[in-house]
Amino acid sequence: MTTSTVKLKRIKNSNIGLATLFAFGMIPMSGFATDIYIPSLPGMTSALGITNSQAQLTLSLFLISYGLAQLFIGGLLDSYGRYKISLISIFIFCLSCVTIANTHSIYVIYAMRILHGITIAAMVVSKRAFFVDLYSGEKLKHYLSFFTIIWSTGPIVAPFIGGYLEVNFGWESNFYFLAGYGAVLFLLELFFSGETIREIRPFHPAKILTIYYEMVRTGSFILGIAMLGLAYSMVMVYNMSGPFIVEHHFNLSPVITGYASLFLGFAWMAGGFLGKGLIRQPFIPKMTGNIILQFLSATALLGLSYWVGQLWVVLVFAFLVHVGAGFTYNNYFTFCLQRFPNNAGIAGGLTGGLSYVIVSMLSYGLTYLLPAEDGRNLATSYMVLIVASGLVMYRVLLLSRKAQSERG
Fold first, then answer.
1. What is the CATH number of domain 10-196+203-407?
2. C-alpha to C-alpha distance for 59 and 236, rounded to whole angstroms
3. If you average pLDDT over residues 78-94, what whole number do you get?
4. What is the pLDDT of residues 7-62, one digit of tens each?
5. Which intervals hold domain Major facilitator superfamily (MFS) profile (predicted)?
6. How far apart are CA 408 and CA 402, in angstroms?
7. Of 71, 119, 186, 320, which is the most buried if we count CB atoms within 10 A?
8. How confident is the model at residue 244, as a pLDDT?
9. How far apart are the first and last CA of the chain?
10. Which sign does the torsion angle of CA 270, 86, 95, 109 carry?
11. What are the DSSP calls for 178-209, one per residue?
12. pLDDT tens digits, 311-343
C-alpha cells in the first residue's frame, strides 16, 4: 500500500451498504440539474428578458461542460481518489445553485451552469467508479444495469417538482431545491462514505493519454458511446422543445409541462427495465427491432401532427420513442462501463463525457434548426436521430460479423 493510500479516509466495511444506497442517490444528479427547471424555461425568458435560445443555452452549456469535464476527471479520480474530489464538488455545486437563485444576469447563470457541469461530472463519475471498486462479476453487472433506471428518477421526478415550484415560488426556487438536495448528499457523504480506490495510480498525463488513445481506438466502445449520445439526444430534444410546445403552442401551464415530462420520464425508465429484462437476448436482433419501432413511432407522430393537433398525440408517440431510447441506453451503458475494468474512472469519464458532448451538440443544433413550435418539428428531430442510430447499428453489425469471421 502506498503512502498516498494510507492517508486516505477509507470507507468502513460497516458503511458499505449505506454508502452504496447513497451512491445511487447521487446518480440522478445530472438529470435533476437539467430537468427540474424545464417547466421554468418560458418563465425565465420573461423574467430575465432573454430569448428562447438563450434560455435553452443554459441547458446546452451544462451538457457540454458536463461532458468535457468527464473526459479528464476520470484520470484525476484514478490518481487522487474518489472521495475528496466528490465531497469538494458537492460543496461547490451547492454554492453555485444559491448564486444562480440570487442573480438576474444571464451571463452569471451561464458561468454557474458550466460550473454545475464540472462538479456534477466529478460527483457522478466518482460514483460510477465506486461500484467498480467495490463489486465485481455478476453483482457488478447487476448494479450497473440499474444505473439507467436509477438515473431516470431525475427526469421523472424533477420536472414534476419544478412545475409546482415555478407556479408557486418562481424559477429561482428550482435552484434552491437543488442546493438543498446537494447539502443532504454532502452530509451523507461526509458521515457514511469514504475512499474506495484499490490503488492510487500516479498522475502521468502521457500515460493517461495513452490509455485514452487505446480506448478511442476500440471500435465497439466508441460506437457504443455514439449510441448513448443519440439515445439521450432524443430525450434532450424534447426537454428543450417541450416546455415551449406545451406553454406557448398549447397555452397550458408549467404544471402541465411537469406532468408531461413526468409521463415521458416513465418512458425512459420503462425502456431501462425492458433493457434489463432482455439483457440475455441476442443483441443485434433486439436493437434492430427497437430502432424500427422508434422510426415507426416518429413517423406516426409526424403524420398525425398534421391532422390531430393535440398534446396527447405528441405525448403518446414521444413516449414510445423514449422507451426505445431508454432501452438503447441501458444496453450500451452497461457494456461501455465494463469494457475497461482496470481503468474504471477513465472509462466511466470517457463514456459519459463523449456521450454528453454528442448530446449537447445534437440537441442544441436540432432545436436551433427546428425551433420548438409543434409536434411536427419534434417528430422530424426524432427521425434524424433514429436514422443516425440505424446507421451506427449497421456499423456495429459489420464489426460483429468481422469479429465472428476472424474467430471462425
1. 1.20.1250.20
2. 9
3. 90
4. 667 788 777 888 888 888 888 888 889 889 989 998 899 999 998 889 989 998 99
5. 19-407
6. 10
7. 119
8. 87
9. 44
10. negative
11. HHHHHHHHHHHHHHH--B--SSPPP--HHHHH
12. 999 999 999 999 999 999 888 877 787 777 777
Grid look-up 414521444 returns 318
Chain-centroid distance, C-alpha 76: 21
Cell of 158: 424533477
* Opening angle at CA 223, ends 326 and 272, nearest 5: 15
pLDDT of amino acid 325: 94
| Listed residue (35, 282, 291, 266) closest to 165, CA to CA | 35
Q: Where are the domains of the chain?
A: 10-196+203-407
Between 18 and 110, the higher pLDDT residue? 110
User: What separation in angstroms does the CA of 230 have from each of 4, 202, 210, 227, 384?
Assistant: 40, 35, 27, 5, 10
Location of C-alpha cell 471498486:
133
Any idea which residue has 431516470 for its cell? 152
Residue with cell 446507421: 391
Residue 328 makes CB contacts below 8 A (sequence gap 6+) with 227, 228, 230, 231, 271, 275, 287, 290, 389
Q: What pLDDT, in 10s, does the model give residues 368-404? A: 888 867 889 999 999 999 999 999 988 877 776 776 6
Residue 126: all three cell numbers together: 466518482
In single-letter form, the type of residue at position 68 comes to L
Position 65 confidence tier, pLDDT thresholds 50, 70, 90? very high
